[in-house]
Amino acid sequence: MLRELHISNLAIIEDAHIELGERLNCFTGETGAGKSLVLGSFEVLLGLRSTADLLRDGADEGRVSGVFELRDPHIIRAINETVDAGLDHDPRNNPLKHPVQLLVTRKLFASGRTSVAINGQPATIQMLQAVGELLVDVHGQHDHQYLLKPGNQLLMLDRFAGCDELRERFGGLHRQLAELRQKQAELEASATLRRQQLELYEFQAGEIDQAAPVAGEYDELNARHRLLSNLEKIAQQSAAVYAALYDSEGAIVERLGAMMSILNDLAELDGELAEPAETTKSAMSQLQDVAFTINRYASRLDIDPAELGEVESRLNTLNKLIQKYGPAPGNKGGTLDDVLNFRGRLAEQIAKLRGQSDDMEHIADQITPVRNELIEVGRKLTQARKAGAKKLCPLVERELAEVGMADAKLDVQIETDEQDTPGSPGSPGSIEASGLDRVEVLIQPNPGQALRPLRKIASGGELSRVMLALKSILAQTDRISVLVFDEVDANIGGRLGTVIGGKLRKLAEHHQVLCITHLPQIAACAEHHLKISKTISKGQTRTTVQPLADEARVEEIADMLAGKGRTATTMKQAKELLGAGQQTKREK
Questions:
Q1: Stretch 301-312: mean pLDDT, rounded?
Q2: Hey, which of 37-51, 371-385, 472-486 has the most confident mean pLDDT?
Q3: Which of 92, 333, 512, 554 has the smallest CB count inside 10 Å?
Q4: Which helix (H) or strand (E) holds 101?
Q5: CB neighbours of 421 closer than 8 A, spacing ≥ 6?
């Protein structure tokens, strides 16, 4: 419910703080006092109308704030999903005993800018409108009425017919089917590119696999190539070293042998030369080992021009692979390890692309059973809706007869289309998430007129009465907590006013109802009566909103009965009207 409404610097309202009751609240006042402005403030608060030219003359800032008390966990959860309002919806808390408070504020600035805050958190106008649709239903202005939208009419019918479970199941299947089709569309759109990529990756992998590179191979081949390229030089110079050390006249080993013999003789003469003699002997032995090792190495050398060609060919093959596939991002060169790593990535990409091709082949098999189940659930939903519509129409017609539209006829047009051409939501041939049906509430207000969509009714009074009738039937299933009625009493007399007042009071057993009225019979049924007045002081026009009780309320009802100049008779009639309302409440 809306507990408080605060209006500041809005047109001719300088400052108004309105406290509202839980059930039926009626606003009354003379023509031009500002009743429509109070209704407009609701629409400003909910983002349902433009704020242009609404700021009070001379004011830098205007504001409309509303304090709501929420009791429905579904509404609390939906608001939290729409905007981060920080509402506590712990199921362990009983919202009926401890309602959750929500503060909605909209500011208007002289610059034309506006701002929105929900529980102190900044919000967009779209968020505000979404929250407003969950909380308040304003009847009286064609552009912003919840039940004028065919989608909301369908939701209304589903709630009346008890289709929530079927609708939720259909919606889940619809999402599943949409996801599968999205995946199918993506695969189809990328099929050519995927095939080209797969061909490229397979070619690259084949080129690398044909060469069959092995980790560490390049360094080994490079070393072998250096050896084979210089084999003749190595053989010649190895032989020269061997000869100089051992196998030539005056070889180093031979000359060391002669020196060693001399030193041995001298060591016998002087013991101090024993160590140099031993060192010379050791050096000669080591050089002999070097000479024999070089000789064995040279004897094993085998000059094979064919092997050199094979090594060069293999190196050329590997170098081409390195040049083509080796360079890593940001590096100019590359290695054989880079090529091998690239081949590993190719394997992953090839497996992925082949897997997507497999998905493409099987996705149709996944779509078919989901679509079949969707259609089956949709048909059940259609049957339930038709049965619900059949029950709903006579109930609403009975309510309409009681509010002065005895000849009105209501029909719920249900168009079912099972043709499912994948496309954007709402396009011809596409199935919506709400089911196979498109629903439109049609009405014939008077005999001789054709049935027309509810949204095309010209009379605001007729429209408000239709809404009242619908709301009366749907009161226990409708989750909108606050209902605002304007023009519900347009073009009707006092007798129907009493009937409508009783229906509003009955409706207020399930909702908080705010009603702007000029009929005393309706005002007398209210549990909370507020008077809207206009005063002019020092050239300034001001509108105020004042709660009425006791004698002040009797006087207002009397003024509504008499127009101007209340009399003892009208005061008596006013008391009788209020008494009748109170008596009805006690009987209830």
A1: 77
A2: 371-385
A3: 92
A4: strand 100-109
A5: 427, 428, 429, 430
Which amino acid, 386? K
- End-to-end CA distance of the chain, in Å? 22
**pLDDT number for residue 140:** 57
CA distance 18 to 64: 11
Count each helix (H run) and each strand (E run) in the chain, helices first: 17, 15
Selection from 526, 588, 587 nearest residue 560 by Cα: 526
User: Tokens 């060391």 correspond to what residue?
Assistant: 256
- Average pLDDT, rounded, for the chain: 82
The pair of three-digit structure tokens given for residue 202, joined into one six-digit string = 């397979």
In whole angstroms, what separates CA 32 from the centre of its chain? 45
pLDDT of residue 494: 65
What's the CA gap between 584 and 110, in Å, rounded? 49
Q: In this model, does residue 288 exceed pLDDT 70?
A: yes
Residue type, 170: F
- For residue 82, the surrounding DSSP H or E stretch is helix 73-82
Sheet with strand 540-548: strands edge to edge: 136-139, 482-486, 512-516, 24-28, 528-537, 540-548
pLDDT in tens, 23-32: 899 988 887 6
Angstrom CA distances, 543 to 17, 30, 172, 533, stand at 12, 11, 51, 6
Of 22, 72, 8, give the one whose Cα is nearest residue 514.
22
- According to DSSP, the residues that pair with 64 across neighbouring strands are 7, 106
Separation CA 285–CA 253 (nearest Å): 8
Q: How confident is the model at residue 94 (pLDDT cuts 50, 70, 90)?
A: low
HEC string of 266-333? HHHHCHHHHHHHHHHHHHHHHHHHHHHHHHHHHHHCCCCHHHHHHHHHHHHHHHHHHHHHCCCCCCCC
**Fold annotation for 1-140+461-548:** Rossmann fold (3.40.50)
Tell me the HSE value of 148 on the side-chain side, using a 13 A CA sphere.
Answer: 16
Q: Which neighbouring-strand residues pair with 243?
A: none
Domain boundaries, the chain: 1-140+461-548, 194-350, 549-588
For residues 139 and 483, the answer to whether their CB atoms sit within 8 Å is yes
Residue identified by tokens 């084999």 is 231
For residue range 358-403, what is the model confidence (pLDDT) as tens digits? 666 778 788 889 999 999 999 999 999 999 999 999 999 998 888 8
Closest CA to 160 of 352, 342, 330, 391: 391
Tell me what pLDDT residue 490 has: 67
- Give CA–CA dist 516/26, Å, rounded: 6
Model-level pTM?
0.59
Q: Residue 161: exposed, middle, or buried by beta-carbon count in 10 A (0-12, 13-18, 19+)?
A: buried
Q: What is the mean pLDDT of residues 394-414?
A: 89
Contact indicator for 91, 85 with CB cutoff of 8 Å = no
